[in-house]
Each structure stands twice: as structure tokens, then as C-alpha cells.
Specification:
The protein is mostly helical and about 525 residues long. The protein has helices at about 5-15, 20-45, 45-60, 60-65, 75-100, 105-110, 110-115, 125-150, 155-185, 185-210, 220-225, 240-255, 280-310, 310-320, 325-335, 340-360, 365-370, 375-380, 385-420, 420-435, 435-450, 460-475, 480-485, 500-525. It has 2 domains: about 1-265, no CATH class; about 280-529, no CATH class. The chain is built from 24 helices and no strands. This is ABC-2 type transport system permease protein.
């Protein structure tokens, strides 16, 4: 039997299983790129305005380290490539990483791959199918971004170069995830290894753009930037991520043929023979399962708070006298001064990201259920509500911790650069915590879907995507009021600096409580599995 037998069948299965999540990823990334192009066309209509904006960026070291240099200031496409090149490559890499690990190591961990492998399936077929699924997603992303930029009137060569740069970054990190899936023994560890590689690539790129330029050539994210779409279109740079992906894929194939199914090559630290008394309750078990992701998210929120808080004064200087930019900032963060508008927009963005963690924590219930780990817990004297409550503490209180950490670190950074440290340390954490009702409502919507329609649990991510796209892109493209009202994040007060009214916070919390109750009632009454 060929080592690649049944690859095509597994490839189709992977695409079918991701028929909801994958289009959501593609839509979200493409919409971010195209909305950025639309914003630049609105804000900087003339070439003189664009060149003036680029000159202000060149003198702002923090923005250059975050987004990279502008390689072409004469076109909307050049500014879009500057603004979304780095983060588009990061999102493409993250999408590919999650997809490959889901269909390789996570399948082994749950035992499904062992059942599949019992049929006429080649040893390398699952890995190949996962890589082909990631390649399909990356090529679709590149095609959608290219087509969108062409429809927006941008140059053909630059649009194609930008789309291929994002696709190449995704292909490289798909290969990184394939290698990590052979090294780690769990899906979470494999995602952690690949995520660490993605974070290191971003840091190296930031160091290179803010200091010695040669350092950015050590980063796959830097390679996507060095393609210089709309600014020279250096096609040969695309060979670097493709060559790296080929080498990593060869390593993954070599390892998959030498290890046992279900085993990883990195040594696992054995735990104690008997569980500690502190793990004797369902809540303690949930804490043990959820603490790793929470620690990782806390570190990420602290880093984001430091970056955005440190950029506060630079953002004020960048806006300058541009009325259109100031108007956009006001639509995103309220009309209470440029600095407060910027901080309010950033706090709102942090709330949206916290909602991603909240949905992930809620859907851990579904993971425990379908993997069979919930069944032995519920076989004892543990009710379903008690089991679910242990996990739901994390979207309830873990999100508060994330926002408080981000607000405190942002306050430290903003106060250190702009002055007024004591005031910033108070107002920014409070502004961040004001996002909680919208975060809780999003998590409660995911819980309602899980409890009432378990087979459609992935729709919780779709609900989250709709909320975020309306809240973030709606003010930019000037959606009507009824459309903006569909997202809970558009009902929050613009803090810091804005007026605080208790009514929207209270009714958002009430709706969240109603949705959570409906989800728990559904969980209590339906069959598990």
C-alpha cells in the first residue's frame, strides 16, 4: 500500500470539517485588508496626503517597529501593504497552524486517527491531507486578497505580490505546525510550539524594522514584508518561505515514519501516581485544564497593552491636523480628544480579543464532551451544571483578569511616555473592565449554541465573527444604525473620556444572563455526545 493512500479522501474530509471555520478565517482576513484600503482611500485621497503620512511614519520608531517601513507612499495599495502586510502574514500563519494541528496531532490525541488508520490509509496520508488543506486555504486567501485589491483599482503586479506574500507566509507556518505535530504529544503543545515560532518571527521582524535591518531577514514574517508589494515587487523573496516550508515538510515526513502513532518525540514529564486532594472537584479539574491557555493569553494581553500604551503619544502626533483621521478616530473611540479617542478605540479592540478567549473557554466544554473525558466525570456524583460551572468561571472571571492586566500595563506605558502615570493607572483598567458586558454576552451566545444545538457548536465562532466585524468595520464603512446595533460592542461607552451610562451595561449583562441560562437548560436536558 502506498504511504499516501486515501490522501484525497482525507483532504476532502478536512475541508468539510472546516466548512464553517475556514470561510470565517478567509472572510475576516480579506475584510480587514480591504477595509484598510477603503480607509486609506477615504483619509488620504491625494498622493501628497499619502506622502505626508508616510513621512510622519518614517520618523516614528514605535510605528515602524510595529508595522514596518512604507515602501510605496504614492498608492493606496502601498499603504495597505504597509498596514496589513505584517499582521496579514501573522493571521495567515495562525490560520494555517491551527488547521494543520487540528487534522494531525489533535486527531491522534482524540483517538480518531487510529480508527482512520485501521482502514486502507497510508502512513503519510493524514499529514499530507492536512498540509493540502492548509495550502488550499492559503491559496484561497491570496486569491481573495488579490481580487479585492484589483477590484479596488490597485495595480495588478502589486496586488498579486501582496496576495502571494500572505499565502507564502501561511504555507511556511503550516510546515512549522506539521513539524511541531511530530514533536509534541498533545495538540495544545503542538499549537504552543508553532505559536512560539510565530511570535519569535514577529519579534525578529520588529527588531529588524526598528534597528539593524538584517535581523528582519531572519524572520518569515520579515520575508513577507521584504516582498515589497507595490514598492518594487521583489518576486524572488517568495522563494525563501517556500524553500523553508519544503525543508520543514521533509523533516515532518521523516519523523512521521519513525514514531509511534499517538506518541511525540519530545519527552513528556510524568505526573504523580495519584492526584492531589486539590484536584478532587470538577472545578479544580477545569482549573487545571484551563490554566495554561489563560496564562498564555495573559502574557499576550500584557504585551499588547505595553505596545498600544507606548504608541499613544505617537498616535496623537501622527493624527496631527488631519481632520479625516481625527474623524475616523472619533467614530472608533468617541469624540473626546485625540488621545482619549485613540485609547478608547484600543480598549474596545482589547475587549473584542478578550471575547475570542471567552468563546474558546466556553467551547472547551464541547471538546471535553466529544473526546469522552466528560463522561467519567459525570459518571460520579457530579451534575452537568456543576461540571459546566467549573469551566464557565474562566469566560466569566478570566476575561476580567485579561482586561485588567492589559489596562494596567497600557496605563503604565502610556503614563511613562505621555505623563500622568497615576491617572492612567486608574482610568485605563476601568475602561478595559467596562468591556466585560459585551464580552460576557458573546460568550453566553456561544454557550447557548452549545447547549441547545451541540452539532452546530462551531456557529459560536460565526456569531463572534459577526459581532467583531460589525463593531470594528461598521464605523469605518458607515453602516446604518440598525446594523451597528447588532453587535454588543457598539453599545459600550467610549472610555476613557466618554460619558458613562449604566443602562447599556445592565441590559447587555441581562441578555448575557438569559442566553447563558438557555444554554445551561439545554445542556441539562439533551443527550451528551
Amino acid at each position: 500500500m502506498s504511504a499516501y493512500a486515501a490522501t484525497a479522501t482525507l483532504h476532502r474530509l478536512a475541508l468539510r470539517r472546516d466548512r464553517i471555520a475556514l470561510p470565517a478565517w478567509l472572510y475576516a482576513v480579506t475584510a480587514m485588508v480591504l477595509s484598510t484600503a477603503f480607509s486609506f482611500r477615504t483619509l488620504y485621497a491625494t498622493e501628497q496626503d499619502r506622502r505626508s503620512f508616510a513621512a510622519s511614519i518614517a520618523g516614528n520608531g514605535s510605528l515602524r517597529a510595529l508595522y514596518g517601513p512604507v515602501h510605496d507612499a504614492s498608492t493606496i495599495g502601498g499603504l495597505t501593504a504597509w498596514r496589513m502586510g505584517v499582521f496579514g502574514a501573522v493571521l495567515a500563519g495562525l490560520m494555517s497552524t491551527l488547521l494543520v494541528v487540528r487534522h494531525t496531532r489533535a486527531e491522534e490525541e482524540d483517538g480518531r486517527l487510529e480508527l482512520v488508520a485501521a482502514a486502507a490509509v497510508g502512513r503519510r496520508a493524514p499529514l499530507t491531507a492536512a498540509l493540502l488543506a492548509a495550502l488550499t486555504a492559503d491559496l484561497l486567501l491570496g486569491a481573495l486578497v488579490t481580487g479585492g485589491l484589483l477590484a479596488a483599482g490597485q495595480g495588478v503586479a502589486g496586488s498579486v505580490a501582496f496576495g502571494l506574500a500572505l499565502a507564502a507566509a501561511g504555507v511556511f507556518f503550516a510546515a512549522v505546525a506539521a513539524l511541531a505535530a511530530q514533536l509534541a504529544e498533545t495538540g495544545r503543545a503542538a499549537n504552543g510550539l508553532a505559536g512560539a515560532a510565530l511570535g519569535l518571527a514577529f519579534v525578529l521582524r520588529a527588531i529588524g524594522d526598528g534597528g539593524p535591518h538584517w535581523v528582519s531577514w531572519l524572520s518569515p514574517i520579515g520575508w513577507a514584508e521584504q516582498v515589497r508589494a507595490f514598492g518594487g515587487d521583489r518576486w524572488w523573496v517568495l522563494l525563501l518561505p517556500l524553500a523553508g516550508a519544503a525543508a520543514l515538510t521533509a523533516g515532518a515526513y521523516a519523523l512521521v515514519a519513525r514514531r509511534d502513532l499517538g506518541a511525540g518525540l519530545l519527552p513528556q514529564r510524568p505526573g504523580p501516581a495519584a492526584a492531589a486532594p486539590s484536584l478532587a472537584t470538577p472545578a479544580a479539574l477545569a482549573r487545571r485544564l484551563q490554566r495554561g491557555p489563560l496564562i498564555g493569553w495573559c502574557a499576550g494581553f500584557a504585551a499588547a497593552g505595553a505596545v498600544f500604551g507606548g504608541l499613544a503619544q505617537g498616535a496623537v502626533d501622527l493624527v496631527g491636523q488631519n481632520r479625516q483621521v481625527a474623524d475616523l478616530m472619533a467614530r472608533l473611540g468617541g469624540r473626546q480628544g485625540v488621545l482619549d479617542s485613540y485609547l478608547a478605540a484600543i480598549v474596545n479592540l482589547l475587549g473584542m480579543v478578550a471575547a475570542v478567549y471567552a468563546v474558546q473557554s466556553v467551547l472547551r466544554l464541547r471538546t471535553e464532551e466529544v473526546s469522552g473525558r466528560a463522561e467519567p466525570v459525570l459518571a460520579g456524583a457530579v451534575s452537568r451544571l456543576r461540571w459546566a460551572a467549573g469551566h464557565l468561571l474562566f469566560p466569566l472571571l478570566g476575561t476580567a483578569l485579561l482586561l485588567a492586566v492589559a489596562g494596567a500595563v497600557a496605563g503604565l506605558a502610556e503614563g511613562a511616555t505621555a505623563g500622568g502615570l497615576g491617572q492612567a493607572l486608574v482610568r485605563l483598567p476601568l475602561a478595559a473592565l467596562a468591556q466585560l458586558p459585551a464580552v460576557w454576552l458573546t460568550a453566553a451566545a456561544a454557550l447557548a449554541v452549545y447547549g441547545l444545538l451541540p452539532r452546530w457548536t462551531a456557529a459560536g465562532w460565526a456569531v463572534l465573527a459577526v459581532f467583531l466585524l460589525i463593531a470594528w468595520l461598521g464605523p469605518i464603512v458607515r453602516l446604518p444604525g440598525w446594523a451597528l446595533d447588532l453587535s454588543p460592542f457598539t453599545h459600550l461607552p467610549h472610555l476613557p473620556g466618554g460619558d458613562v451610562t449604566a443602562a447599556p451595561l445592565l441590559w447587555l449583562t441581562a441578555v448575557a444572563a438569559a442566553l447563558a441560562t438557555a444554554g445551561l437548560v439545554g445542556l441539562r436536558r439533551r443527550d451528551l455526545g
